[in-house]
Design brief:
Elements (H helix, E strand, L loop, with lengths): L2 H14 L9 E3 L2 E5 L4 E8 L4 E9 L2 E3 L4 E5 L4 E4 L8 E3 L2 E8 L1 H12 L5 E10 L6 E10 L1
């Protein structure tokens, strides 16, 4: 493929699928290993926040599209647990949110039991962000992998 063809394909793709990745909330790390026999604590950093605040968080076995919101949210049929708002330890500073995700043993146990039934051994921590300026909600997922 020639350089000109590559440029043309890039321009057409950008016009057909306009996605402003810089406007979306990002998380680091995007995947973590989880203790199957006890609690797991992970430090998460969310960036790209623009007039958005964290509202809720769930652990679940499967994701579904969050349309009309952005991202993927938990499939309600596969919820393993919810972060109680009183345990929210996140801190927002200059458009960056620092969060401590503590996965309780009860969530790890439910994920393990789900894997024993033949489902995947990974599950998700999904955080929902709400715009304070009238924009769409955004869901950001972290993949949690069961490890021993």
């Amino acid at each position: 493929m020639s350089f000109r063809s590559i440029i043309l394909v890039s321009v057409v793709a950008r016009l057909v699928c306009p996605v402003d990745v810089s406007a979306q909330v990002r998380v680091n790390p995007t995947g973590v290993n989880v203790n199957t026999q006890g609690a797991t604590t992970v430090f998460l950093t969310y960036g790209g926040l623009r007039n958005q605040i964290p509202i809720e968080a769930f652990w679940c076995g499967a994701l579904i599209p969050a349309a009309p919101a952005r991202g993927s949210r938990c499939n309600p049929a596969t919820i393993f647990g919810q972060l109680p708002i009183r345990y929210n330890q996140s801190q927002l500073s200059s458009g960056v949110l620092s969060d401590v995700m503590s996965i309780p043993p009860s969530v790890s146990r439910r994920a393990y039991q789900d894997a024993e039934r033949g489902n995947t051994s990974s599950f998700y921590y999904v955080r929902r962000f709400v715009s304070t300026a009238g924009g769409p909600d955004e869901y950001v997922a972290v993949t949690c992998r069961l490890a021993e």
